[in-house]
Design goal:
It is a single chain. The protein has about 400 residues and is an alpha/beta fold. The protein folds into two domains: about 190 residues, ATPase, nucleotide binding domain (Nucleotidyltransferase, domain 5, 2-Layer Sandwich), CATH 3.30.420.40; about 170 residues, 2-Layer Sandwich (Nucleotidyltransferase, domain 5). The protein is built from 13 helices and eleven strands. The strands form two sheets. It has a six-stranded mixed sheet with strand order 5-4-1-2-3-6, sandwiched between helices. A five-stranded mixed sheet has the order 9-8-7-10-11, sandwiched between helices. The chain starts with a strand and ends in a 21-residue tail after the last helix.
Length: about 400
């Protein structure tokens, strides 16, 4: 099947088209088009994502992204006459809260040939509900005019399975890749701006949450600490860059040693709020002493990054010891951090029988290709898809 996928869970508008074949454990994917429109510059001055601004920008971005994606996939064509079943009033009802998207939709879609796709996938949660609704309503409108089934997808499930796409094979085989074979039980670590979770995967699409953050997600902590250190948004790449600039050796006077919250708690939960607060107090102390300079900022960034990694590695290692997984799956924007990737690889290398699946950098941030992959796997269950009109944005949607 050829899947058109839409992702708007936060501040990235994304549209992809993926050709998928095969069932569980033998799926093959050909990424026909993969596009993401970032809103980073818009939210940068606020130091974080503003939901109402994200919603507005999704309304601006989705139609141009769709046209671009259809063209790249080679399935864009102008119709000789308007779609015969097109009913503007129904579209107006669906997109009544997305005025700019509605105007673009009515201007463009009736003049296009129905593309050769088999289904439309869209993120239904978790995420920012104002942002989610834009993607959902766009998908509902397309499903109506093109008469295609709609597959709702959990955003976290997308991150989880993106780790099994072998990007090296994409480069070497003209965009054709496959989900590598995994063995169960598997352990999934999802690390992003909104989530820090350890999940036991007993079989395909069968999950048990074993650990999550009690306050800030690890990506959120990176952003907050970046603001304390006067670094621009988003904080993750900036802290990683600054950490690399830190002196390799320190003295007793210059050494920075931050806490590792809950590292020895005996469970699989996380907490990063206290670590952020420790950085705040330390920065204030250094300012009062006249020592808050580029070198101390770099040293703070380095130990803060390592503190987060130490906790993530320790909890993952504890879960490996208890559940004895045969596969480790990692997903989410924070896995773009090269030091975290390196130390996870080192951890898993100690147990050769465990396979590690980490997504290529291209697929670490929010994207629609991962939504298409998850939609294909969900489709293997052969359940009746949700009626488009019943699809709802679920900001706190659990992985189940």
């Amino acid at each position: 099947m050829i899947i058109l996928a839409i992702e708007t869970s936060c501040d990235d508008s994304a549209v992809s088209i993926v050709r998928a074949t095969g069932g569980f454990g033998r799926s093959k994917f050909e990424v026909l088009a993969h596009n993401v429109s970032s809103q980073t510059k818009i939210h940068e001055k606020w130091g974080g994502v503003v939901p109402t601004l994200a919603k507005r920008e999704h309304g601006k971005n989705l139609m141009p992204l769709l046209v671009k994606t259809l063209k790249e996939a080679g399935i864009f064509a102008i119709a000789k006459k308007n779609l015969p079943a097109f009913e503007p009033k129904k579209i107006e009802k669906i997109l009544e809260r997305e005025s700019e998207l509605l105007a673009q939709f009515l201007k463009t879609i009736p003049h296009l040939k129905k593309p050769k796709i088999d289904a439309i996938a869209v993120t239904e949660g978790p995420g920012l509900e104002p942002a989610l609704w834009v993607g959902i309503n766009f998908a509902r409108a397309l499903s109506l005019v093109w008469n295609k089934p709609l597959i709702p997808v959990n955003h976290l499930e997308g991150h989880l399975y993106t780790g099994m796409i072998d990007e090296q094979k994409i480069e070497n085989k003209k965009n054709q890749t496959k989900i590598a074979k995994i063995q169960f039980p598997a352990l999934a670590l999802i690390v992003s701006g909104g989530h820090t979770e350890l999940i036991l995967v007993r079989d395909w699409l069968k999950y048990k949450l074993i650990g999550s953050t009690r306050d800030d997600a690890v990506g959120e902590a990176f952003d907050k600490v970046a603001r304390i250190l006067d670094l621009p948004y988003p904080g993750g790449p900036q802290i990683s860059k600054l950490a690399k600039a830190a002196p390799k050796t320190t003295t007793a006077e210059t050494e920075i040693k931050l806490p590792r919250p809950m590292i020895n708690s005996g469970d699989f939960d996380f907490s990063f709020s206290g670590l952020k607060t420790a950085v705040l107090y330390l920065a204030q102390k250094l300012k009062d002493e006249g020592k808050f300079n580029d070198q101390t900022k770099a040293l703070i960034a380095k130990d803060f990054q390592q503190a987060c990694i130490d906790v993530l590695i320790a909890k993952t290692n504890r879960a490996i010891f208890k559940f004895k997984p045969q596969t480790i799956l990692v997903g989410g924007g924070v896995i773009a951090n090269q030091e975290l990737r390196k130390q996870l690889e080192k951890l898993v290398a100690k147990t050769p029988e465990i396979s590690l699946f980490v997504p290529d950098q291209k697929f670490t941030t929010d994207n629609a290709t991962m939504i298409a992959v998850a939609a294909h796997l969900r489709n293997q269950q052969k359940k009746t898809p949700k009626t488009p009109s019943r699809l709802q944005a679920q900001g706190q949607m659990p992985l189940r």
